[in-house]
Design brief:
Distance between the termini: 8 Å
Helix content: 25-40%
Strand content: 25-35%
Order of helices and strands: EEHEE
Structural class: alpha+beta
Number of domains: 1
Pfam family, one: YIEGIA_cap
Number of strands: 4
InterPro entries: YpzH (IPR054055)
Oligomer: single chain
Number of helices: 1
Length: about 60
């Protein structure tokens, strides 16, 4: 089972919880931020197709 390291969303009222949340204004900005975090955190970005992407560590 993976661990959610971060959330990147364009819809603030749809996200919450214990992982860091990055709020962005556009889908383009969402993808840019998610893919940068993917490299920085050595994680995998997953698009939930609802305005939210999650960054998951599948290794630990």
């Amino acid at each position: 089972m993976g661990k959610i390291l971060a959330v990147v969303s364009t819809i603030p009222h749809k996200v919450g919880g214990g992982a860091p949340i990055f709020l962005v204004e556009t889908e383009k900005e969402q993808q840019e931020v998610a893919f940068l975090l993917e490299k920085i955190l050595d994680a995998n970005a997953h698009d939930l197709k609802n305005g939210t992407m999650i960054l998951v560590d599948h290794k630990g």
